[in-house]
Amino acid sequence: MFEARGITKVYHMGEVDVHALNNVDLDLYEGELAVLLGPSGSGKSTLLNILGGLDVPTAGRVRYLDHDLSAYDDRALTLYRREHVGFVFQFYNLIPSLTALENVALVTDIAEDPMPPEQALELVELGERMNHFPSQLSGGEQQRIAIARAIAKRPDVLLCDEPTGALDVQTGIVVLEAIERVNRELGTTTAVITHNAVIAEMADRVIQLSGGLIARIRHNERKMPASELAW
Amino acid sequence: MKALTRKMLRDLLHMRGQALAICLVMASGVATFVMSLSTLDSLQSTLDAYYERYRFAEVFSHLKRAPQPLTARIREIPGVAQVQTRIVEAVTLDMPGLAEPAVGQLISLADRAADGLNRLYLRSGRLVEPGSEREVIVSEAFADAHRLVPGDTVRAVMNGRFERLRVVGVALSPEFIYQIRPGDILPDDLRFGVFWMHTDDLAAAFDMEGAFNDVALTLMPGADEEAVIDRLDRLTERYGGLGAYGRDDQVSHKYVSNEIKELRGMVAVVPVIFLGVAGFLLNVVLSRLISTQREQIAALKAMGYSRWEIGLHYLQMVLMMVVFSVALGTAVGAWMGSGLTRMYTLFFHFPVFEYELDVSVVLLAFAVSAIAGCVGSVHAARRAVRLPPAEAMRPQPPASFRPTVVERIGLQRLLSPAARMILRQLERQPARAMLSCLGIALAVAILVVGNFMEDAIDYGMGFEFQLVQRGDVTVTFVEPTSPTALAEIRSRPGVQHVEPFRAVSARLRAEHRVRRNAVMGLTPGGELFRLMDIDEKPVPLPGDGLVLSRKLAQLLAVDVGDEITVEVLQETRPVRRVAVVGSVNDFTGTNAYMQFAALNRLMRQEDVMSGAFLSIDREREDALYTWLKNAPGIASVTVKNAALDSFRQTIAETLLRMKTFYVAFAVVIAFGVVYNTARISLSERSRDLATLRVVGFSRGEISLIQLGELAVITVISVPLGLVLGYGLAALTSRAFDTEMFRIPLVVYRSTYGFAAVVITIAAIFSGLVVRRMLDRLDLVAVLKTRE
């Protein structure tokens, strides 16, 4: 589904150049749940942002189906994100002035064939809290709202950047269960970034990054259900 | 409703205090804009319609006496459309309840007055009838001042005889929208009135049968006014013509069009200040909003919202504020406009003068405000648009600070940590601090300018009526008179001092530049009328030469030492070259002065006078006035204090109202700027302040840091504003530099004090509001939020 070749990303930080990604090749397959594992600074967020059309590589080529993302301008990337990608961030990035339902509606307002926002909230089991504002919800609940918001457009790919990074174990697992369920029931290709090796157990494939390079790719023989994870 | 629209509305509601402050500033701009533009429109359209329907003439000329057949020859001048010849005479009036005599201007009215020029609008009663005796129609302003109604009588001295004039109607004329006695500076409806009498009746009373002494005419479309004036002057020359002039020099029209010009200036300047400040505040507030919403913007972009949609989202917020401001400003502006219109009806007499607010004015106000709003916010919105989503996900790097200039030059030991925080904050965003200062300074300046008008008028009046015109009463004679009349006046009880003057109508010519202007002959070293410069220094009146108003010298483009041609338009009509020997920097009119004797020599006459200045014993004034009312040779009597009082009363109310508006607007700006500056820096610094509280700083101490910044800004702004105010006053003074008036650049100390105090109070009040917010600062919540 995704085909990235020779991806290099260089940031100019003051007078030094930081190589966040160094000539990386990567494929993602339809319907799979991939985990990108690595310590902070390994380049995994950069890679995810490039796949999601939030950032463009300094060099290399990224294809999504028949789209050449590396050749896209801002307009085309925006359209790509709008039509195909669902994002989940570490700090949820909900709009504090909008209720849970309205946060989801933000996406369904502009998507082509969205599910009703209520249904998206049911999927993450937060149907009864839809009229609460983010400040009235716990961290885990906020993250599940963010997942509902990401999937309400029926995206082709769901990209999650440290979705449990700001959560404790129990809430983290509830959030991972929601991601797992979306991947299973809707068949959405899913990529999860984490520095937590335990989470890698729930993936079809684990891609390990280190210092801007892909260190290792492994297939899990047996995917562990999220509910059984512990750290 | 779309979720994004809902976000916009909730964000707006969340920052309602700041939004309201901005809206008030913007609404003030809209209000002044709507007020001045709609009043201007109303005034202009009322004026145009009145002139059109009542056939206001375009060229005017007064002469001594011409036979009726000359009318036909005037009609033959190429370019002349319609001619009205008539008789205009001055009379003194003895009005009940008025000790001093009033002056009436009698104008003849033909049988078919409804077809002629300068038609009357009859407010009540009827027109005068042919064959009637001593029937008059009286001007509404005079009728109102004396509560005259048809059926009343007025006692007048006409051509040396007592007459009772019977009022049959009350009317208005386009010639007297502003009713002022020729030569006067201030209008006085109590002491000057216009009367219309049947031509035959008036001619009989003044021995003017078959003759006329005044011409009014209209021009054909495209006619050359100057050429017509020239031909008319040549025709009337041998009949004592005083020189024709166009509408631009017609007294009433001059005042009305001057007012229109001032309103136009107001439309162009005042709203710009407010909208500029509002734009700046929008920029500051929106920039801050966008930097606190970095991550929200990033999330929206990640969801697939386009740059355009996000930019529009913030501009929509601005547009909402614009809509609110325009609605509020239009309401206030319409209210002020109708008030201003009512005020105008005190000075300007129209048959109907109603305030009208045209939709186009509101639309224009909206367009102008929307542009100001967008210009103010586009910079901030662009930052939101340009924000790369991947970068926005990361928290903003800590703001970079560095030691301030004060510290770098080694004075840090003098500064407490709190003072250092304040200074570094100011220095880190110097542009913002400077614009905040400028905003408050503008508020101070508005107050200074608002009161400057009052100061200038007060000073100008004091100058004119205490330093220059020191006599109590000015008397003019029907005909130039010999000194025996002077002796007679001097002998009246109550008269302390008398000085004669000579005034002649003349044409002053310097190369191709020509002006119709009176030349005034004064007694050198006289006590009752002293030529004085703007800096209160007496101006000498040497030899045979002329001393000109600075403005007149400018208009003629002559300097001291040059010679000009004086063509006298009356009596012997001499034409002479006269040297300009001095110039006087005065406030009103365009004046030319000579020595009394020198002017008489120029006229080839001896000791002839046109009138006299009198200083009198106020205790015995009534007896003197009674004598003056009945003296046949007296054409007019002007009592200085009476005119001054009546003017002061009218102007006082006007000025008070203007001042109230200025204060309200300035406070709105000051509060808007101070409050917003405080809110923003509180939002930027709430974490630091909460941290300080946690480590043990008291509320008072953190307030000091927070409010210290405001205090510094205010302390810098006030003197800056005073200087700016003086500058604006200078600009205003220059803008008002017309032939009719010059406004002296005088700002009283009390004006500076008032401005400084009002703004300081507004700043302190804003500070208290911020202090309350600081007291409510939720330490835990602030520290937990991610910046």
Question: Quick gist of this model?
Answer:
Chain A has helices at residues 44-51, 74-84, 100-108, 117-123, 139-151, 169-186, and strands at residues 2-13, 16-28, 33-37, 59-64, 67-68, 85-88, 157-161, 189-194, 205-210, 213-219. Chain A is of the alpha/beta class.
Notes on the protein architecture:
The complex is a heterodimer of chains A (231) and B (787). With 231 residues, chain A is an alpha/beta fold. Helices cover 29% and strands 29% of the residues of chain A. Chain A is built from six helices and ten strands; from the N terminus they run βββαββαβαααβαβββ. The radius of gyration of chain A is 17 Å and the shape is globular. The model of chain A has no long low-confidence stretch (mean pLDDT 91). With 787 residues, chain B is of the alpha+beta class. A six-stranded mixed beta barrel of chain B has the order 3-4-9-6-8-7. The longest helix of chain B is centred in the last third of the chain and has 55 residues, at 640-694. Chain B is elongated. At the A-B interface, α1, α2 and α3 of A face α1 and α8 of B.
Biggest sheet features of chain B: 6 strands, mixed, barrel
The largest interface is: A-B, 35 and 26 residues
What Rg of chain B is obtained from the alpha carbons, in whole angstroms?
33 Å
Low-confidence stretches of chain A: none
- Percentage of residues in strands of chain B: 15-25%
Strand content of chain A: 25-35%
Radius of gyration of chain A, CA atoms, in whole angstroms: 17 Å
Mean pLDDT of chain B: 88
**What is the oligomeric state here?**
heterodimer
What structural class should be given to the helix and strand makeup of chain A? alpha/beta
Question: Per the principal axes of the C-alpha atoms, what is the gross shape of chain B?
Answer: elongated
Main beta-sheet strand count, sense and barrel state of chain A: 6 strands, mixed
Q: What is the count of helical runs of chain A?
A: 6
> Helical percent range of chain B?
40-55%
Q: Residue ranges of chain B: pLDDT <50 for 5 or more in a row?
A: none
Q: Please give the share of residues in helix of chain A.
A: 25-40%
Q: How would you classify the helix and strand content of chain B by structural class?
A: alpha+beta
